[in-house]
Structures are given as C-alpha cells and as structure tokens.
Design a protein that fits this description.
Elements (H helix, E strand, L loop, with lengths): L1 H21 L2 E7 H9 L10 E8 L7 H13 L2 E5 L1 H4 L8 H6 L4 E3 L3 H10 L4 E8 L4 H14 L4 E7 L2 H11 L7 E4 H7 L6 H4 L5 E4 L3 H16 L5 E3 L11 H10 E8 L3 E10 L8 H4 L15 H6 L22 H4 L4 H8 L15
Parallel strand pairs: 1-2, 1-7, 3-4, 3-5, 5-6, 7-8, 8-9
Antiparallel strand pairs: 10-11
Length: 370
C-alpha cells in the first residue's frame, strides 16, 4: 500500500512538472468510466490547473439517439412482447415518457444484468417474444453476438436484438474532423481496447497527428496515462501508447472479435448530438436478420431530440460542461433526470452531480430541486 501511495505521489508530481513547463493543454477522456473514476478516486482534485480534462462521448446510454429510445418505448407499448434492458436505459426520457413509466403502467419491461438473462427469459417463456436492447460499445457487443449464436443453436424464435451498439473510434474521428473543440490528446478507454486492441486507435496519431494513451481505471493507471499523454502533447509527439498492458494487447481479444465480426457488421448510425457517423455502429448481418428486432418489427427511427434547454448534446461533444446547463442540479437531478447525461451512472452530468459539483455556479442546495 505504501509503495502504491508513493507511486501515485510520484506520478502527480511528474504530471505537475510537465504541465508547468509546457503550459496549458486540453485533452479528452473519451470514456464515461474514466470520467466517474477520476472524480470518485479523488485523482481529479490532484491534477494541475493547466491540464483541462474534457469529457467525451464515452457513455453508451448518453449517445444513444432519441429515435432508438422512442422505438424501444413503442415496442414496450405493444403489450405482446417483453423488452429486456440494462437498468440505466429504463430511465432515459423519450418523447412520450420512459420505459420506467411504462413498466409502472403494466408494460412488460425486464431489467437484466446481462444479455444471457434476456436469453434465459426467452427460453423459459417460449410463447412470448423477448427483445433485448443491445446498447454499448465494443466492450459488450461480443456478449450480444454470443447470445445470438446461442439463440440459433437453441432454436429460439422468440428472441431478438435491437442493436444500439456503437464503435468508439469513428466517434473520435468525427470529433477530430469537426474541429469544434480544441483537443490536443486523448485518454482512451481501456475496456474497449481490451476487445479492439491498440491498433484500432492508431489513426488518432497517424491521420490526425494527436497523441493518445490507452489506460485502465485505477488511480495509478489514470495518472500514468495522463502523464504519458501530457508528455506527448508537450513534445508534439503523435503516438498511441498503451499503459494497460496487463489487459490490452496490440490486436485485442481475437476470440471476442471473431464473435462480434461474425454476427455484426459496421453500419452508418445516428449518435445523439453527433449526427450520423459513418461506420459508427454495429448492425446484425443479413445472415442473422431473423434476430434483428428492427427488421422483424419494421421499426422506423425518428429524428434526434433534446428537451428544451437541455445541453446534454453539447456535453457529449465536449462543447459544454454540466454546470453550463440551466437545468443542471436545478430541474435536472439523478432522481428527476431531463437528459440521458444525468441518467446513466457513466454520464458526465451524473458524475459531476455526485462527485464534483461547483456550487459557486449553482443555487444554494436549499433552492435546488431534489
């Protein structure tokens, strides 16, 4: 324990020295898990003032377009099937309520901890279709793919998937191509890289000339990643560095990737606030069309939408911080969320509310909504 504390202290001092010598810099932590971990661990409080961390579109619930949410709600309203979903998705507001509200009204909405829970429910209830809301990045897509393969092997005709899986690298490319936010480097998500491998992110350096670092989520990992990133920015050295070698390889998890690539193919897909990103999502291949809920039910996805005044879309893009939103900690709280950035446990607004609110910019707690 003492050696770990010494290592963390050394990394903090080194990071301060690099930033003091080079001057202010802005980097993005792409992943919502990093956003939460930086606050919860206390690491954020020890970072140099000249290092600005911008939260990125790394919360899968937050970047799920409104059209997908509304389609899921439309399915739940039918009454002749069960919608299975992870807990965060239940509370995301749609244009006409949420899955949580529909469940309270009697709709069959099943909260699951894994796609296998949904698969087992379908197997146990053969007379009722179960639609799994497959939301997540490359981290969870292999498990969804494995469930589709298992459903075929079991001969389940009452199981389908509404794919909302996204690919991280196309979103990073979209942000860099837009150039709306000055970004000098990227802290990349370790759990995504476990699947994809480091090679997936090489275009950050090779095409856009930016340094990037793959890191895990422990304090030492995040500080080591930020130090290497700051060194790369200071030296104007575009490269992709992996400090999470215990879990991440150059080529990723070949078994998981094989499952994912067998069932899914890259497709153009709408991201909340970012628009349609080419190859930014994963759709079921034609071979598995019978397990595709969108095709099975001929679903139409409407336009993206944010509630009036909600700045979740700008937060996702790194254009605004949660405290810039007029609803933050007033009308929008974890108990009464207005936008998905406050719903998800990985959402930037939820992380700020729980761990890092700047009360100088907010009304007194007695005046804030609960």
């Amino acid at each position: 324990m003492n050696s770990m504390r010494k290592e963390v202290a050394h990394l903090v001092r080194s990071l301060h020295r690099v930033v003091a010598r080079s001057g202010p810099m802005s980097v993005m932590e792409v992943c919502g898990t990093h956003t939460v971990a930086l606050f919860r661990s206390g690491v954020k409080a020890f970072l140099p003032e000249g290092l600005r961390l911008i939260s990125g579109p790394g919360c899968p619930v937050c970047v799920t377009a409104q059209g997908y949410i509304d389609a899921a709600i439309a399915l739940a309203r039918r009454g002749d099937l069960t919608v299975a979903t992870y807990g965060d998705m239940v509370r995301v507001p749609g244009r006409e309520g949420s899955l949580e509200q529909l469940r309270a009204e009697g709709a069959s909405v099943l909260v699951v901890y894994s796609v296998r829970d949904a698969l087992r429910h379908a197997a146990a209830n053969p007379d009722r279709e179960v639609v799994f809301l497959a939301v997540g990045f490359e981290t969870t897509a292999p498990a969804t793919a494995a469930a589709v393969l298992e459903a075929e092997s079991l001969g389940l005709s009452n199981f389908s998937v509404l794919s909302g899986h996204k690919r991280v690298m196309p979103a990073v490319e979209a942000l860099l191509s837009a150039g709306d936010v000055p970004l000098e480097g990227f802290l990349l998500p370790g759990h995504v890289a476990v699947i994809t491998g480091v090679e997936e992110f090489l275009p950050v350096a090779e095409r856009f000339g930016k340094p990037a670092v793959v890191a895990g989520f422990e304090p030492e990992q995040m500080l080591r990643g930020l130090l290497r990133l700051a060194e790369g920015v200071a030296a104007h050295r575009p490269s992709v560095v992996n400090v999470y070698g215990v879990a991440v390889s150059r080529g990723g998890n070949t078994v998981a990737r094989a499952h994912m690539e067998r069932v899914f193919e890259p497709v153009d897909v709408e991201w909340r606030a970012l628009g349609v990103i080419p190859q930014g999502g994963l759709g079921l291949r034609e071979r598995w069309a019978r397990f595709d809920a969108a095709r099975r039910h001929r679903l139409a996805f409407g336009e993206d939408y944010d509630p009036p005044g909600c700045r979740c879309g700008e937060v996702i893009q790194g254009k605004a911080e949660p405290a810039d939103c007029p609803h933050f900690a007033r009308g929008c709280t974890p108990r009464r969320p207005i936008g998905p950035c406050m719903v998800s446990s990985e959402g930037t607004c939820a992380a700020w509310y729980k761990y890092g609110r700047d009360f100088r910019r907010l009304p007194p707690p007695a005046l804030a909504a609960t």
